[in-house]
Amino acid sequence: MKKFFLHLTIILSLFTISAKAQNRIVVSDLKCEMLTNPEGIDVLQPRLSWKIKAEVNDVKQTAYQIIASTSLEKLNAGNGDLWNSGKVESDASVNVIYNGKKLKDRQDIFWKVTVFTNKGEIQSKENAHFSIGILTYADWKSTRWIGYEKASLGDSISQYSRLSARYLRKEINLKKKVKNAKVFIMGMGLYELYINGNKIGDQVLAPVPTDYTKNIKYNVFDVTSQLQEGKNMLGTILGNGRFFTMRQDYKPYKIKTFGYPKMALQLFVEYTDGSKDVIRTDDTWKVTTDGPILSNNEYDGEEYDARKEMKGWNTVNFDDKKWLSAEYVQEPGGFYEGQMSANMKIKREVKPISIKQTPKGTYILDMGQNMVGWLQLKVKGNKGEKITMKFAESLQADGSLYIANLRDAKTTDIYTLKGEGEEVWEPRFIFHGFRFVEISGFTTKPTLENFVGKVVYDDIQTTGTFDSSNPIMNQIFKNAWWGISGNYKGMPIDCPQRNERQPWLGDRTTGAYGESFLFDNQTLYAKWLDDIKNSQTIDGGIPDVAPAFWRYYGDNVTWPGTYITVADMLYQQFGDAKVVEKQYPNMKKWMDYMEENYLVDDIMTKDKYGDWCVPPESLELIRSKDPSRLTDGELISSAFYYQLLNIMKKFAVIANSQNDIKHYDELASRIKKAFNTKYLNKEKNSYANNTVTANLLPLTFGMVPDGLQTKIFENLAHEVEVTKNGHVSTGVIGTQFLMRTLTNFGRGDLAFKLASNKTYPSWGYMVENGATTIWELWNGNTADPAMNSQNHVMLLGDLLIWYYENMAGIKSNPETPGFKQIIMKPDFNAGLTYVNASYESVYGTIKSDWKKDKKGLVWNISIPANSSAKVYLPANDVSAVSINKQRLDKTSYTYSTEKNQVVVTLSSGNYAINVK
């Protein structure tokens, strides 16, 4: 029997088993997508997952056996004192629920798995680990929140808020040798933790933001190796983040504030003799606001005075006599939760491409890419000299910064030199969205070597690649990557540069689906669904922004409906049924709320934004003034609500709430009837005023009466192809379904024209006009650039989904969510001559690399182990098809023919397909 090695991680994490052909076995070095060996989870029945990676074809799991132990020694001895599942006959390798003994607060769990396949037994060589967090509020009762609840000299509690960072320290004495130590920290709004002078962890801007009155996230670190017998020093720096908000005493009816930065910490120590100790935050900690971080404000930047650095402040024996005793402060109010999504991290570096002096003596630095993060500075100079760096996305005609679109965000970092040789500095508690930086204060001419751009977003893996025969489409894909990554900030935000940066729901209704092909965003969006749930009002309302840092409770369908569509994405793309079960009661509550309050004569009457950002008829207009371009808001809300009812029917089955299905069915039927009565014009084969969106939504959602679908679509296609000359005419709502619907109705060529256009309005127009991300407006360079964020993702619509599902042919079969079976059905005739794409699914890497010419089609595909694919080949006759240099026959493969296609079902492995 063959033996395989297994690399493991935990809960929503994905692992790799590597099985080389000819019995040669190695452990793969694939990175894990989700939480790897996490500390402090707050789930008592976590879901375990693993991957099988094999260079032999047709690998299927037939059974598994999981062992979980309280210690590594017991695990290695095969003693599953927490859980021994026994041999379970199952092909499940994703989201396998822990079903052992009840887990306890702060417990360590070690586990491994043996996988049985049709090719032999695969036994794990490496072991996985996770620990449980603090599960109850009461377990924090002896730990007090501490801080400094006052403004200091130089601070400003105003619209343009300034607040210096809080530095806290505590010297402790550990009288014995440490066996194990873990620290639990809640640092609001942002923190950095130090032990004996060393920063703990490589995260930045931690923890992830929440509505702090509803829930607080704590982080956990194993700090055993950082502690020593004897004296040790615990130190923290507290930044402001979303807690001490960017605008104080300004529009209190809109902007939520939470107070001054504060923290709660518990350090649990176990000594080698078995005894234990706990160190907690209390009023014996010392605090000062008189450190070098004079101000840190996400909108306005960070100011740092290196002359005020306190050398050794976070090490033992530092003189802190001038520091104050920390104050006991009011807790934030939210429930304490283990953070189950990734913190942010510096993910890559960008080197600038040019630096030019301006007539006024400043310098303009060009990073070559609209990026999100900050700038690291290297400088030599005299004590007290100041380097000022102002950030912007673009330049004016005279070469100076264009800052009007930043509104009142100052986006400026200031560094004051201490005058001690080369000084290297970067901010801690802010981020900027920028390509260009105006730099002043250098006494000598700066060079490119003085600066490095640090790209910051959530520590999640890039899971998708895409390359094609069309350069414009390739550049749009790159621009999308930069835009999406830059707007992942512990939650999905709309933009990273101006005085907004809010988690608008409507930007991600379908966008999250497309993003999931590029990034492993499962835990990010699962966390965001909790944010939405926590923002729900008692009567059921959901805001347009969640967490509700801005109080936008206006009620409509298309923005709050994101709550449901994102859950559907997590189920479809990751096979995550648990998230649906968890959120279903609150989703139903909102659906009922909208029905009870706004459904009149079976028409959903509440709409707020319409088809937001429809391309205007003129390059100079921000919003269209032509009523023929605008879609009836009640048509949009009624169609969208109808679609949500259909998703809720599926969710009701998952959540074991089948009794709701009858209501959803009956209500959907009534809405469909009323919708067609009010909006369908059978004589003109169109809906309402015949906008593309007005016809597109009922077509996509299945609301068009039988026999009329083709006529409605032909009318829609005529509008796109002839009336709009092959250009986008839909706004945020319509564009979410445009590309896939055109392709599904046989006009992939028209979708390709939209994707590859270079003229207004199109994604390619942005590229042709210098965009390196995605704009907020289709004509953002001409309409009033002051209203245009140059890094938004909402206009992507379903473009990325179309790239993968319709061009590359990488789609999860809805009947087997999470890519258990893959639908591989590219539109080979849309207009591309080759596509090379990959996607790291929960089962492993899926590859689709096809090229066609006059001789035929060459298609190389990879299907991960323990999954399969339904592959559609453009052939009238099976004799034209060969796989791995062998002609297709039923002795080797299962296939069928339909509509000039040969449909082959393939198990896992690598296949070279030729179609003459």
TrEMBL record:
Residue ranges of domain Alpha-L-rhamnosidase six-hairpin glycosidase in the record: 462-807
Record's keyword terms, sorted: Hydrolase, Signal
InterPro entries on file: 6-hairpin_glycosidase_sf, 6hp_glycosidase-like_sf, Alpha_rhamnosid, Bac_rhamnosid6H, Bac_rhamnosid_C, Bac_rhamnosid_N, Ig-like_fold, Rhamnosid_concanavalin
Top EC class of this enzyme: hydrolase
All residue ranges annotated as the Alpha-L-rhamnosidase concanavalin-like domain in the record: 356-457
Catalytic activity: Hydrolysis of terminal non-reducing alpha-L-rhamnose residues in alpha-L-rhamnosides
GO molecular function: hydrolase activity
Record-linked Pfam families: Bac_rhamnosid, Bac_rhamnosid6H, Bac_rhamnosid_C, Bac_rhamnosid_N, Ig_Rha78A_N
Leader sequence residues: 1-21
Domain named Bacterial alpha-L-rhamnosidase N-terminal: residues: 176-347
SUPFAM superfamilies referenced in this protein's UniProt entry, alphabetically: Six-hairpin glycosidases
Protein EC: 3.2.1.40
All copies of domain Alpha-L-rhamnosidase C-terminal, residue ranges: 809-882
Protein name: alpha-L-rhamnosidase
Organism: Flavobacterium artemisiae
